[in-house]
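Cast an eye over my tokenised protein here and flag anything odd:

===
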Amino acid sequence: MNSKYNPLFEQVTLPNGMILKNKIMMAPMTHSSSNNNGTVSDAELAYYARRSGGASVVVTAVTYVSDNGKGFPGQFSITDDSFIPGLTKLADTIKEQGAKAVLQIFHGGRLCPPDAVGGDVVSASTIPSEKPGSPVPRELEDAEIVSIIEDFGEATRRAIEAGFDGVEIHGANGYLIQQFFSPHSNRREDRWGGDVQRRLSFPMAVIDSVQSAVQKHAKSPFIVGYRFSPEEPETPGLTMEESFVLMDALAEKNLDYIHVSLLDFWSKPRRGADDSKSRMEWLVERAQGKVPVIGVGLIHTPDEALAALGTGITMLALGRELIIEPDWVEKIESGNEEHIAVHLSKEDQERLVIPDPLWNMILGVPGWFPVLETGESK
């Protein structure tokens, strides 16, 4: 291995004492490839087995914790104990390849399609979606909110019983947890809404529920991470200033990491902070070393990964890169980084063990990743 890449392979010790073998994580990515009944499919198992040999941590696609929380078709469930056997197979598949297995958990809230949840679309508040044709969600009642918080704890118990090494709370990308923190989607005037501190109530309660389950059920160190999006385009909407408030609160919750969800690692703030630094740099500075920070977003090459680590992040998550090049980490480690694939051909699906639904998404989204019309990947 080229010695300049040594920083990518330094061990990381999480706050819970767990030691990770390197600084690369596989980011959670939607693949819509679960069975129709919400169980883990064989195609998913093969997909993760192919990609779990290099990164120190693999975060799964997100699973929903409540019956009315399914966010999209082809998603797997953790809503009751009947799903534990399939989740156990998933955890075992990832860990057998050498990575720590982390299960991402969420509730889709107002982004859940009616056909996925029987038409009962719920949210922090009754605020219509900007998406044409989307239903107006129903504002959750207090008792329902409490029940969903408990569902996060029960999901964590099931993840522990299934053998996962941790969970990542999905508080990003406009789903229910973000809906409660956002001034755009939370217009409540009860204990779950109001100013920025009161809008923290639901995210903090979810974290407490998860950590309580860990304390009660885990027999060994168990990772609890939290993912959030730093800004929203709407007005009113989340600003960097409000994300600093969230970061301050998260840094005091004894989390094992904070995962900042960005499409572009180097993107600059819109509002609430000046553009002399990237969002990621501002958030790393705000964390003040109190909690590990994980970055993500359009990092393709090992040199780009080194530059990202130079911002002070603890680890780097790779998403699309590990779809197109499952051996990204191994090729750097063996000194073959010049052979890392950067394109897909339409003949690559079987070789890369990509399930049909994910493959169709790749082909159907312009700019998802450079796809060659035919021939071998370059």
Remarks:
- The chain has 13 helices and 15 strands.
- The radius of gyration is 20 Å.
